[in-house]
């Protein structure tokens, strides 16, 4: 990979962040004009968005845009950046649904507002205030995402081309999220179901649809390009989700910003867990029930479950699947419908999505 | 009012409901193609939307549309109907935040999914499943609202005109909702703050912005028309919210679909409560603390608080304010910027919004 292209992705990320900052500054001012009581809202969303984040979805949108020979301007940068606000909604609501205390090493939004309630000695029940704030801040992030996209300054044609993809992506996201919470309520794990969740929550939402949105914004969007980007994006998206599953069990808390073994404590029915379960003896399965999904799971319990995932071979198999899926994605980059200038971006992003440690 | 115009509003409501039904049928089919596990989602949202509802926001949009000489077609009907999906999001999330068990005489969405969890003997914690389902069904309703608006078949000009109003309305809604939950945490009631919440939650969201959206869809949208509709919509919206406040305390459960005195049990800091509080003696205020906002508030406690609201004169004062505000709205209808043919619609809707018993 040329260092020129690598620095190009870094500069795109920087431009995305600058547009987010400008949008959030304007919107915070707007809220403050309604009432100064809204300042904790804008402060929390701004910090949530700007303090950290990989900006993966805007970067995939940029790669799709470059695949269609798009030349970046402020309007298209803003449209891509809006995906970060949608992701903020997904994460804020996700943490609330999972009861997660932390996100990116900081308190999750519902915990943050719960703490404000206690610190400021407000009336009522602090967890209910935290819940309500998280529901509304997620909703507001979702609405701001639309507003940022709609007011980006795109041409009417760009807007009319991109919006149907954007809408379908969001329906797929919510469908994937519901299947995910529903999966946690099932008596038995099921690899097919877990794979479908990975496909909708990540394959489509994180990678394929952002690529398509970027392509739709470019001037050379063709059915062949859309198809080629799906051939790249869908397997890569699944690989991305499987990496997430592995990090949720084996990730280093100092890098992930989440406690060690967090997915084990939450009892998340991921593809990794379904694969482990399918390879377990009945005795192991019995043993795992003592630890999996227990709120008070400690380091010893985590280590026992981790050993099980390794000794059944599930971890290794998932790593192999990630490699295979990434390989399929890499092959798809050679499709002639994709502009040559975009290939190094797609290659680099495939590595970032699957080799990451956070 | 001519019976011809009255039946016109009834037929518009019917057309709005038919478009909602068609949209929901198509979207339910789409979800079902992803997974049959999503059928409780589409069933619940469809029933929530189609079993009842006054369709006030689409009807106000229609009145704004008629004010600008708009002639109704399928595309504009769909755009107006999309407001019902947005309202579904607001109500589903509102019930979750308030911990309300019922909506329109049926279980609220979080309670409905909690019950499904128990009935189907699912794994995990039923209330957490109910919470997650309510978060996601609200999010999906919000996304479907956009999708219905964006895919309504409007001309590009109509879409570009209406979307900025739609986006601003949704930001105002979320801001109003946050101010509302924040108000419940304050040590003291404050009439000015409660009035501002009424303005954002209802004045703008329920009435002014739907009118503006309708006007933007029409062919005669002018700054004068927008201004005239604000002069009508803002006072009427406040009157609408105050009627809601009164129904939350004095409403007949068989009509409201909510338990008697629900707002008293939830301890809602409405304008009505702020006005009562300002007129109370210290002894009465002391007495009210025994009942107001108590989960186990019974009929006797409700009657004591109701008496207080009546004896301080707060109820009567709020009724007078509703009359005054409605009068201001009625006067604004005479503005020449408003097409004559729309005036009877605006008059009828003003009565529906303020004289209702549910």
TrEMBL record, chains A, B:
InterPro entries: Isoprenoid_synthase_dom_sf, Polyprenyl_synt, Polyprenyl_synt_CS. SUPFAM superfamilies: Terpenoid synthases. Its cofactor is Mg(2+). GO terms for biological process: isoprenoid biosynthetic process. Signal peptide: none annotated. Keywords: Magnesium, Metal-binding, Transferase. GO terms for molecular function: metal ion binding; prenyltransferase activity. PROSITE patterns: POLYPRENYL_SYNTHASE_1. Belongs to the FPP/GGPP synthase family. This is Unannotated protein.
């Amino acid at each position: 990979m040329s260092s020129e292209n690598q620095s190009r992705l870094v500069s795109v990320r920087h431009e995305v962040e600058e547009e987010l900052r400008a949008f959030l500054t304007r919107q915070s001012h707007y809220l403050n004009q309604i009432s100064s009581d809204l300042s904790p809202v804008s402060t929390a969303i701004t910090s949530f968005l700007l303090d950290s984040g990989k900006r993966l979805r805007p970067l995939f949108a940029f790669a799709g845009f470059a695949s269609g020979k798009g030349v970046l301007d402020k309007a298209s940068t803003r449209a891509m950046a809006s995906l970060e606000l949608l992701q903020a909604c997904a994460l804020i609501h996700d943490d609330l649904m999972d009861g997660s205390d932390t996100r990116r090493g900081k308190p999750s939004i519902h915990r943050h507002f719960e703490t404000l309630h206690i610190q400021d000695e407000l009336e009522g029940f602090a967890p209910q205030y935290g819940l309500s704030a998280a529901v509304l801040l997620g909703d507001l992030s979702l609405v701001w995402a639309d507003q940022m996209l709609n007011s980006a300054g795109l041409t009417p044609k760009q807007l009319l081309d991109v919006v149907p993809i954007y809408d379908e992506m969001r329906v797929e996201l919510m469908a994937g999220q519901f299947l995910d919470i529903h999966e946690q309520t099932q008596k038995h794990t099921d690899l097919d179901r877990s794979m479908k969740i990975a496909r909708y929550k990540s394959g489509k939402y994180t990678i394929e649809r952002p690529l398509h949105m970027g392509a739709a914004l470019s001037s050379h969007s063709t059915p062949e390009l859309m198809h080629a980007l799906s051939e790249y994006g869908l397997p890569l998206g699944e690989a991305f989700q499987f990496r997430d599953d592995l990090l949720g069990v084996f990730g280093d808390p100092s890098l992930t910003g989440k406690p060690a073994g967090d997915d084990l404590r939450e009892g998340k029915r991921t593809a990794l867990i379904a694969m482990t379960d399918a390879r377990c003896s009945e005795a192991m399965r019995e043993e795992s029930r003592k630890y999996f999904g227990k709120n008070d799971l400690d380091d010893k319990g985590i280590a026992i479950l981790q050993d099980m995932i390794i000794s059944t071979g599930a971890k290794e198999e998932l790593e192999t699947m990630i490699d295979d899926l990434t390989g399929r994605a890499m092959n798809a980059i050679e499709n002639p419908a994709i502009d040559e200038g975009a290939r190094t971006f797609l290659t680099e992003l495939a590595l970032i999505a699957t080799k990451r440690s956070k």
